[in-house]
Predict the structure.
Amino acid sequence: MNAVTQDLMKRFSVNEHCSSFIGGESVNPSGAGEDIPVISPITEQQISLLREASIEEVDTAVRTARDAFENGPWRHMSVDARKKVMLQIQDVLLSNADELAYLESINAGLAMGYVKGFHVVRTGWNFEFFAEVASQATGEAYTQTKPYISIVTREPVGVSALIGPWNAPLALCSMKIASCIAFGNTCVLKPSEFTPLSLRRVVELIHETDIPKGVVNLVNGRGHVTGDALVSHPEVDVVSFTGGTKTGAMIAARSGEGLKPVALELGGKSANIIAASANIERALDGAILGIYSNNGQQCLAGSRILVERSIADEFIEKFVARSKNIKVGDPMDAATEIGPVCYQAHMDRVLSFVDVAKQDGGELLTGGKRDERHETGLYLEPTAVIAKSNEAQVCQEEIFGPFATFLIYDHLDEALAIANDSEFGLVGYIWSDHLPTVMKASQEMRAGTIWVNTPMTRELRAPFGGYKKSGIGRDSAKDCLQFFTEEKTTTIPTETFPMAKWGASD
Ligand code: NDP
């Protein structure tokens, strides 16, 4: 740990306990739940103790959200009044950007400068963006069937369960909160048990604004305890989940028992096609960012890099040289490009894929072990392997770390077949300056988002979500409006019309 980190640790204290936050108050746990150490991947030391919410505590949180929805002012407020609060939230979050970035960094291992400049800004922007979406939302009117007018309005859906992963807690969960409450709903958020710190502070900060109590509640705990109690609670109306595919399937089944709509943003194993017609230097920069940024822990990573044979040797050689030169280190250090992976068991899992790759006939190109230059911290050497075929496990399973897998192809059709030979379909990348190649790839890759000659670029207005096992539903202005509201049709006659008078005659 360097001096900068030590200084930051003195400046921003981390609460000894990380409990739930319900109805505008920090919860004093009943003792019914377990205490779970929160470990920093930088120091590998305990930095807080998570007080797990029991089933009873989850019940209190959901009932508080229900009461705020039914009896509180939030859903009845004018959209402009709600927007004012949403903008206050943006302000308070941005005013505390250093602290939020620090908490995310010490807990999730993400580079602090990157978190502050990108994730915290996005966290604030989510509230402004969805306030604007809500304020621009329109209804519909149908006048074709005379003498009636039928108007279609949207109403908040009620109480939402919001469940998020550990790889980018601030950016992902703030989007869930903002898109949910903008339309007048109330919510209970459950962050990952591994990374509860930044979101706990976000919810506290939200309560420094004029937000009514009970609109935003947070429960902390493990998925199979706290998460399950939340999803299956009868007073929860909808479930919005981002996480792994297996968990997503369990949550969908659980939600199905209560006929609750569910939005699932799940895993990926996305193809990054590098055609010989690409600007090779830019494709190289993009491929490196595509797999290694966010410490390689991204659902949208370009983790299967498919290179056209005529440029493969040169491209892979340069990729390996650059990988060896990436600055792996303390995420509080401004020069760091890759920080530690999030927790020990995850590090072990990522590293286990080196042997898996070899067993399937693949070859290790670089990395493949813990970065031994650091005495403490879950640092991995940026790793790349070349696989024998797309059937290899490293081509089919999401590894979710700084671990690139290469395949070589001869023709675009072959690359597209490989790209689509996956149970996932979150995103696809194509690097080429040849328009027909770009168009064919973008049309034929079976994925929810295609990035052409660019690494990941999120446009909040446009749908984001996966084909196949990468999810159900989309995130976007329009999709969130649909998910977090109910449509209501009201039909009114515009004039008095003759009505049958049953039972009126003798
Ligand atoms: P998990 O699926 O393990 O967990 C996600 C969340 O669900 C956590 O808060 C977890 O709690 C909770 N959870 C686990 N089991 C249950 C349950 N039975 N009921 C309710 N909640 C439960 O995912 P990870 O946290 O490991 O995140 C990594 C995954 O997320 C990757 O597959 C990645 O691709 C995906 N992801 C997808 C994104 C997208 O937009 N498509 C974006 C980012 C990540 P806890 O951890 O406390 O047990």
